[in-house]
Amino acid sequence: MKSGLSDLMTIGIPAILFGMLALGMMVHRELGPFVGLTPEGKWLLTVALGMGILAFVLKLGVAQLLVQSPENTIDRLTHTDFLHQARADSDKGDFLNPAPNRPRQYVWATLPTTAPEPADNPGTLAKIALGKHLFNEKQLSGDASLSCASCHDLYEKAGSDARRTAIGIANQVGARNVPTIWNAAFQSVLFWDGRVPSLEAQAKGPILNPIEMGMSTPAEAERRLNADPTYRARFALAFGEGQAITFERIVQAIAAYERTLITADTPYDRYVRGESTALNQAQLRGMALFEAVGCVLCHRGPNFSDASLLDGETPLRFFPANPTPYDEKYKLLTESGERGVWRVPSLRNVALTGPWLHNGSVDKLDEVVRIMASAQLGRSTQLMTWLNKDSALDKVDRSPLSDRDIHDIVAFLESLSSDGLRKKMAPTTP
C-alpha cells in the first residue's frame, strides 16, 4: 500500500501542477476574454475550477488507497462501525460475508505438539507442575468452592463444562458458554469477545470476576497461598528462591500449564500426516465440503480458527452476519439486541464440547452447521446467476446445504476430536 501511495504522489503531483497551469492559461487567454470577465473575475473562475480539479484528484487518491488496502474485516473497523454497516447491508437485502476473501489454494495442516510461549514466561517443568496445582486450587475462589477446573473439566467434559452457560460462585449463572481450554494456547485472543491477548491475561479474569470465582482482590489470593508452606516451596522451585508469591506469578504458572494442553492426536491429524485410512468416506466428503462452501474462510489453519497464533489474520467476526429465523429461535443477538462481534473459536474437539455458540443455545452439532451456513455463508436462498460485462455467466451458489451435506460436514468435525479425549470420555461399563 505504501508503494502504491508513493507512485500515486510521484505521478499525481506533477500532473496536478501541469493541469492547474493549463487551466489558468485557458481561463485568462480564452474563456475570460470570450465572456468579457474582469481580471478579478478571471482569477475567481480559475480558483473555482481549480478547487473542482483538486476535489476530483482527492477522490481518486482515496479510491486508490481503498483498492490497495486489505479487506475491511473486524480488526480494521470499530465494532460500532461494523454493526452500522451490517445493518445497512441487511436493510438493502444484501448478503454480508464477514470473512476476508482468500482466493489462494487452501493447504491443510496438522497441529504442532508444542505451543508458542512468551519470552517472559518460559514453561519450565517446575512452573508447569505448579500451574497444574493452581488450575485445580479452590483457594483461588472467594468461598474456596471453585477452581479453574470446575468450569474447564479436562477429561469428562473435554475442557469445558457441558452447560449452556457457566455456573459461578454462589450458583450465579453467567451469560456465556464456557470455551474449552484444550488448544487455547494457540489462540491469539481469549474470551468470546477476544478482549485479552494472552493466557496470562485470561487467567486473571475468572479468578477476580464476582460472578465466576469471586476472589476479592489479587492480594487476597497471594495471602492465601503464602499461608501454605507447600505453595511457598513450589513457587521457590518454579521462580527461584526468595521470589515472592505474587498474583502475576500465579497466572504465569497457570498459563504455563495451559500451554501443555494440546490435542494433536485426531483422525484428521493422522490423515494429513499420511495415514490414508484415518478418515472414512463421509468424513472425506465433509472435508471437501468444509473447504468448498467456505468454512475455511473463518475456521482455517491447524487450529481451525482465524484467531490462531499460528497463521491467524482476523480473529474477530460479526455473528450472525445475516438475519435468519435462527436469530430469534436461539437468541443469537446480544443482550442489547445487537449482532455480536465474537472471536473465531477453534473447532478442535468441537463434537465433544456441546452445547454450542456463545450462549450455549444449540445442543445439536448438525443444527450449528445449518446456522453457520445460513447466517455466515448465506446458504439460505438459491443459486444466483447473472451475465457480467463480458457476457460470461457469473454465479453464486447460496442454496441451502442438503441433509447429506450437513451429515458429512458433521462427520468431518467429529474427526477433529482427540483420540485420547474420546477414550477418557467414553462411559465405563459396570
Would you mind describing this structure in some detail?
- The chain is mainly alpha-helical.
- The protein folds into three domains: about 70 residues; about 200 residues, Cytochrome Bc1 Complex, Chain D, domain 2 (Orthogonal Bundle), CATH 1.10.760.10; about 130 residues, Orthogonal Bundle (Cytochrome Bc1 Complex, Chain D, domain 2).
- The protein has a two-stranded antiparallel ribbon with strand order 1-2. A two-stranded antiparallel ribbon has the order 3-4.
- The radius of gyration is 29 Å and the shape is extended.
CATH superfamily of the largest domain: Cytochrome c-like domain
Mean pLDDT, nearest integer? 85
Top CATH class of the largest domain: Mainly Alpha
Which CATH architecture of the largest domain?
Orthogonal Bundle
Number of helices: 15
Q: Measured on Cα atoms, how large is the radius of gyration?
A: 29 Å
Poorly predicted sequence stretches spanning 5 or more consecutive residues? 1-5, 65-93
Total beta strands: 4
The N- and C-terminal alpha carbons lie at a distance of 66 Å
Oligomer: single chain
How are strands sequenced across the largest beta sheet? Answer: 1-2
Global shape: extended
Beta percentage is under 5%
In N-to-C order, the SSE pattern is: HHHHHHHHHHHEHEHEEHH
Main sheet characteristics: 2 strands, antiparallel
Structural class: mainly alpha
Structural domains: how many: 3
